[in-house]
Fold this protein.
Amino acid sequence: MESIEIKGKSRNSTLLIGEKFENIGKYLPRKPIYIITDSNILKFYEKDFPNGKSYIINPGEESKKLSRIEDIYRWMLNNDANRGCFVLGIGGGVVCDIAGFVATTYLRGVEFGFVSTSLLSQVDASVGGKNGVNLDGYKNIIGTFSQPRFVLCETQMLRTLPREELSNGFAEMVKHAIISSKKLFGELENDCKSLLSLTEPQATWHITESVKVKARIVESDERESGLRKLLNFGHTWGHAVEKSTGMPHGKAVSIGMEMACRLSMKKGFISSDTYLRITNLLKSFGLPIRTNLNFKTVFEAMLKDKKRNSNSIDFILIKDIGSPVIEKISIAELQQLTLKND
């Protein structure tokens, strides 16, 4: 097991990579525990749940609606949850987003932690203190910044996931490599087959390295005032694709990364060889790089992105693998650059 600590402004967060779920009791405070999980996780792991009251959501983004969150608040209120309680999210990205949001807004904030059960959640959603819910299909447009007390990531849990769900996590791992290190990107290329089959020790090593990338960025910019924006590489266009198609997050971000690389190439930042190297790795992980959806539909969805500032959007581009750059691009220029889907 490897322990990684993020030093946040309100509290520190400990990421436990490779720890076993059965050891969760070691990290829980002596407080009443209120568990938020989904029906799939309950089916596989209920026997290992710690003592506490449980709220079961349906898997999927539909559960991140505000109306569903209200139901959880009422459940906590009806079950005597006070400021001395602890919220434990056991599940993937949706569960962790919901648990973190509920915990940071209920009674103006109670302590919380995560048992992260999906690859996407382990390398991205549960790391960094962002907690959010959706509004009218727009992802995480209502949210908070607050660090979980801990995030437990047992890599063996990933073996119960379908291939498509693993691909969602691989997209974020590729993203972390692109914005941080040529060396890490090369390791992903070399170990792609091992990762697809979750071969050890490669799988745990890559998950740990990916988490370290995000942890370093989050620790230096907890509330996304500067450097943390780099983690949005592929997300500006990707979230618009996700909103417009209902496509899984990782696949949409993969399409967003292709768009960001294509814009980088059009602006003369990267060569066609670098573009192809990145898109080939995405395809090797079974990820799409294009969508047949009408351009106007995606573009209009993108204009509602959280990262829009009046008449421009902070778009994350790259000048090389490992060399990201924040580019403020006007809406007019962006429309010209992205108009041709070729």
In short: The longest strand covers residues 312-320.
